[in-house]
Amino acid sequence: MAEPSPLLTRGLSKSYRVGHIRQSLHPALIDLDLEVRRGEILGYVGPNGSGKTTTLKLLTGLLKPDGGEAWVFGQPLESRAWRHRMGYLPEHPYLYDYLTPSEYLDYAGRLFSLPAPVRRKRARELLALVGLERSTRVPMRRFSKGMVQRVGLAQALINDPELLLLDEPMSGLDPLGRRLVRHLILDQRKAGKTVLFSTHILSDAETLCDRVAVLRAGRLVQVGALGEMLRPDVAHMEVLVEGPGSGLPEIEGEMRREAVGDRTRLEVDEKALARVIVAVDAAGGRVLSVQPVRQSLEEHFFQEMGGDDGGGNSWEG
Amino acid sequence: MGGLSRLVAVAANTFRETVRERVLYNLVFFAILMTLSGLLLGQLSIRQDEKVLKDIGLAAMDFFGTLIAIFIGVGLVSKEIERRSLYPLLAKPLSRGEFFLGKFAGLVFTLLVNIAVMTLGLYATLLATGRGADPGLLAAIYPIFLGLVLVVAFAMLFSTLTSSALASVLTVGVVLAGRFSDVVRNMREVLPAVPTWVVDGLSAVIPNFRNFDFKDRVTYGDPVPGDVLLWVTVYAAVYVTIVLGLGLASFRSRDFQ
Q1: pTM of the model
Q2: Domain coordinates of chain B in residue numbers?
């Protein structure tokens, strides 16, 4: 018998009451049907306010659904047994600032009933993994936002979970931290774990995910592999040229020209590439690089969604 | 078994928080200061010095204990909700009930340690000034502790229902109304417009905190019979169970947006 999916939802819905005197219901998530496959990294993307955090809170029991059902490892959401196999990082986590990261991880480990030696070992390993091995005994009130985020990731991994739910895991991290998290997520997949992470930063999803699920105004609008979603054909060629400056004549098939210091960046049609190289050479210039540009996830969604969800919510590249 | 160990983990962490936040230290310091003030006042009085000292010591315990109970009962639970520190915890195998009761156990343990330290301070003062360590004082201190446990239960209930500011106001309101329950009962004499059902309702719902006050009796040397203490214990247990049960139901049903 096939093992059940790590995560499956059918018709999952949630509305919030808004307003004080005259209250009305604002749908935050509408009939979500989603399956996360074993061993994949699924990016849960959408503009701010599209329902990503609501979904993760429903799955972790912080919110109660208005309708629909969800199963984690084949067990209903209400069951607590699957929680031993899941790790969760909330968005902008606040951890107890009077504790040191070691103490916090020990506390988290106790909630999984891990024996003390295991807790100590896991805490040591995880703090090294997130690059905090030199701050294990520093109270977290002295931590930067990025350091707290790293401890948040470590606590999500304390039980060596099979399924990781990460809400905006790159939030508040510097470039080094973002790279660390990217590697950490990829390492989890390598170890056979399943990762569902939400983000509104499309480049993160593009770099990491096997599949993406796209949410807009509480509705799942698309789910699939990036390769299927994005057109594989080359959109245009980007040519970096040195030398000719204004001496370079306009070339047939040229889409855009831009001066970058003493160089010129050209965007040209793929078929015009040969003509461009000849023209640059004739003008006494030199072609420094030629790069095919394919459609990015960001461009795809801007095209599909008109770049905005109509509610003032925004994407980030 | 797992549930109990998780509950104990939450309780231990709650106690650690109260210690690390140093609030307790300050209030214990103030309590000791009050006891020392009592010592000075005692020297000014004639013959009544021991009674005055006991009076001030027990009153300080009650007063500071109530302040601490309201402060930590509202503060620590509201903080968990408002700062969202419970989010990663509730996603673990920890149930909401285990978290809520663990928090309560941790707060009660904090109050116990606090009142134990103040009791030791009072006895130390009595011994240091050549008076006897009257064990009868415990018959007043124990009901004070029961009253504080009930205050914490109310503070936790209100914290699950509303903001920390309003929860503090409501808890202080219940404590004051409970301490002046005779005023509530006689409200209609002062304010005849108040409907009877309001007065009856308030009298029935708000516990009579004077039931936990044996300070005068003890300082005058009157013994408190064991069955009276037993009745007070049952009274507190019933109220705490109801109030905590309501708080737990509210905590279980709420959404953490």
Answers
A1: 0.84
A2: 3-253
